[in-house]
């Protein structure tokens, strides 16, 4: 792809944005070259085709790229200062060595983040997830899951629910929302459905619990009673479904084969066979590979100043997504330069009745099922995954030998942080 971009002699921010974008795109494997003429910049990009790789090789290449992105992010001034402060306050006390954890004594506790201390704990440990994440805009809350059965409280994992994207072809086709005429009253069906659903934007288990399928436990708890009750408390509505994606390709093992009907309680006999349903794929155009520097350069290209051109005016502060989209447009680039790879689209829900409500709108007489006891979730996870599948020799060895010492985020610091 080749794109000519006109940049005036005084437009230095646009120039800086393009070169920062070039660095970010090359970090994930794309081939980018910017050349100059007397009047233009020629932005040449040849995206790397991840579909040519096997599933294993694709995952390795993306993990390497995401690790590089994470390292750049954590070396940014504000992030570095936050990490240093949290580690000086012994934040790693919440992380367990493998030898400290008695699997038979695990007792999970769900903690909704409602104060700054909890939010700081969530923020620090969310950086353990290789895939870059952000809080996004709109509704959302974060959840910590502790193990209180050990000698001291340890973190099993965490997840975050965020506002879902307005449009997703695979999701909307599955829910029948793609047939809605945006000029008709039927679009209220989509609107009301989005109000009663969330994006599972972050879900990760921390070591050593991740070695015993802790990620599946986090995915299961994301629709459990404490989370649904928090959603209802905040937004005065029922949480009917979760939407999520697989970052490394069409399928994600973390969501597969979580079978609700295996939970030992007759209340769940009529529930959906699997908690998460794969409903399709989509090409992934994402800004996750973009650094804070690129975002701030994009944001600085716009202002509320009335004396500048209409194409650079804004009415309100810009989110990361909007700032990048507007900066690309102003630079003459399509958002297709942010191509990453094909991802799978998943919908999580307890019962087909819940999906029927999302498809029918708020005036339906159908009643959704919302009950999912976290204690029964734990019993299912322990019997189905921990006891039955996690105690093979290799996995158990990784669990027991895990040493949290090298996992300090400050170990990723490289020289002086960028200010």
Architecture overview:
- With 419 residues, this protein is an alpha+beta fold.
- It has one domain (52-411).
- The protein is 35% helix and 18% strand.
- It is built from 13 helices and ten strands.
- The strands form two sheets. Strands 4-5-6-7-8-10-9 form a seven-stranded mixed β-sheet, with helices on both faces.
- Strand 5 and strand 6 (154-162) form a beta hairpin.
- Helix 7 (214-221) runs antiparallel to helix 12.
- The radius of gyration is 23 Å and the shape is globular.
- Residues 6-10 and 304-315 have low confidence and may be disordered.
Q: What count of helical segments does DSSP give? A: 13
Structural class: alpha+beta
Using the CA coordinates, give the radius of gyration.
23 Å
Number of domains: 1
Order of strands, widest sheet: 4-5-6-7-8-10-9
Low-confidence stretches: 6-10, 304-315
Distance between the termini: 33 Å
| Count of strand segments | 10
Q: What profile does the largest beta sheet have?
A: 7 strands, mixed
Coarse morphology = globular
Amount of beta strand: 15-25%
Q: Order of helices and strands, N to C? A: EHEEHHEHEEHHEHHEEHHEHHH
What level of helicity do the residues show? 25-40%
